[in-house]
Amino acid sequence: MYSIVSTAIVCGIQSILIQVEADVCDGMPAFEMVGVLSSEVKEAKERVRAAIRNSDIRLAPKKITVNLYPADLKKSGTVFDLPIALAILSAYGRIPQTYLEGILFAGEISLNGEIRPTSGILPMVLAAREAGKRTVCVPRENVREAQIVKEITILPADSLLQVMEMIAKFAEESSKEVLNNSNNIEETGLKYGSTEYDFAAIHGQKILKRACEIAASGRHNMLMLGSPGAGKTMAARAVATILPPLTEEEALELAKVYSVTGLFEQRENNFRERPYRSPHHTISVAGLAGGGATPKPGEISLAHKGVLFLDELTEFQKPVLEVLRQPLEERGIRLVRKSGTYFYPADIMLIAAMNPCHCGYFPDRNRCTCSRTMIERHLNKISRPLLDRMDLCVEVQRPALLDLTTKEPEESSAQIRGRVEQTQRIQQQRFAGSGILYNSQIPVSVIDKWCPMQPDGEKLLKESFDRLELTARGYYRIIRVARTIADMEGAEQICKSHIQESLLYRGIDRKMWDWE
């Protein structure tokens, strides 16, 4: 007999429906699987055979052929175990084919027949909905993840026998109320904001706080350079607390990234909160950009729509840093492998921190013990192309004792976030229908339209182009930052003061990297 069961496979953060065909016929007992299969899919043959036997299901020895199509797409992962077992049982006549129609099945199966969780469930459920299916059967541990998708009935799978009984009951009940399918984004949307790090705990550092607010308002990249203990890391953590919450669409896209990496539990109770990722400087290229034998998203994609903080920037390996250059421009990363092409979103706000030299006290020659060669070697670990992609470069000074001991309350993250949200609303109204969300994303082709400048501001910018030896990229980034500063003040046009402040945030790279 012949049977067919629907499942899905993850490619990047998208999912493609896969059909599992099973044919059982008389002949020499055998179990063959075809369809361009990876080693873990081929091993499903032994897991399924043992699971059926240990579930006290006795099958006559026959020739079993299982095909996974499309046949030209390589199949990997353990998600096919459950659909393969059900397809075989249906081909043997143990499960009516009508019970399996309209349902997508996914899950790893153990040798005793238990259904174990698997990664990538969220994209699979979304693919099922797009294909017109309204029921999905997933491991019970993945139920909350699957529940995010609206208009889908979720069947929780505990074991092979339980699935057989459940789908029979589901097919017979007219109401088909097996599980109350609520929407987790709506339930968890009220939880937002961390109180562990707050700008109220940062005393003094007015220039740094101002730069952080500008960066958050326009989603600009920022580099902080200063001596150890000046507050760079604390400021970077606090930036995440002044970003507005994710929209439902953004939260769903980010949840897909965490789903395929098997880290969904990290987003399960804070869907609306923007991610903050701070990888250690020993991270590899694949760890940051994504990849591996079975390609998965890296840290740059896990920080999608949020903050990627690179502390001790000069300690990262140079190839790791250089891999950031293209994603920062394209807000995504495309990996080309033998098995196919994988695209992962990477719309990040990059914040980096570094010491000015090995000892950390340059240019204070009274404290700095580094030679000129040591300082040059330290600073040259950051390439000019990467430095050019930093919209704001801020020198973080050591806080004064008076600032640390003052009893006057500092402005909280909640207060700053209110202004950031107002500034971003101005940008959303301006760019409505254009596909642009923030000032940092304004294309060069329309920058004159969205960034009108007063004559004195335009004159200052032109004079600074040669004096500061700006690149074309740096020139346009100054304009985008000035646009954000103008929005923070509610100004329609960019004036001279906005250009002046924007230029101040580009002066540190000339001061530090072109010193004599």
Summarize the structure.
This protein is of the alpha/beta class and 516 residues long. The chain folds into two domains: 2-182, Ribosomal Protein S5, domain 2 (2-Layer Sandwich), CATH 3.30.230; 199-513, Rossmann fold. The strands form six sheets. It has a five-stranded parallel β-sheet, with helices on both faces. A four-stranded mixed β-sheet has the order 1-2-4-3.
What is the alpha-carbon Rg in Å?
28 Å
Report the uncertain regions. Answer: 174-180, 187-194
**Mind summarizing the main beta sheet?**
5 strands, parallel
Span between termini: 82 Å
**Strands, count:** 18
Helix content: 25-40%
Under CATH, the topology of the largest domain is which?
A: Rossmann fold
User: Rough shape?
Assistant: elongated
Average pLDDT over all residues: 89
Q: In CATH terms, what is the architecture of the largest domain?
A: 3-Layer(aba) Sandwich
Structural classification: alpha/beta
Question: Numbering strands along the chain, what is their spatial order in the largest sheet?
Answer: 11-14-17-10-18
What portion of residues belong to β-strands?
15-25%
- CATH homologous superfamily title of the largest domain: P-loop containing nucleotide triphosphate hydrolases
Number of helices: 24
Number of domains: 2
* CATH secondary-structure class of the largest domain: Alpha Beta
Primary descriptors:
516 residues, alpha/beta, Ribosomal Protein S5, domain 2, Rossmann fold, 2 domains, 4-stranded mixed sheet, 24 helices, 18 strands, elongated
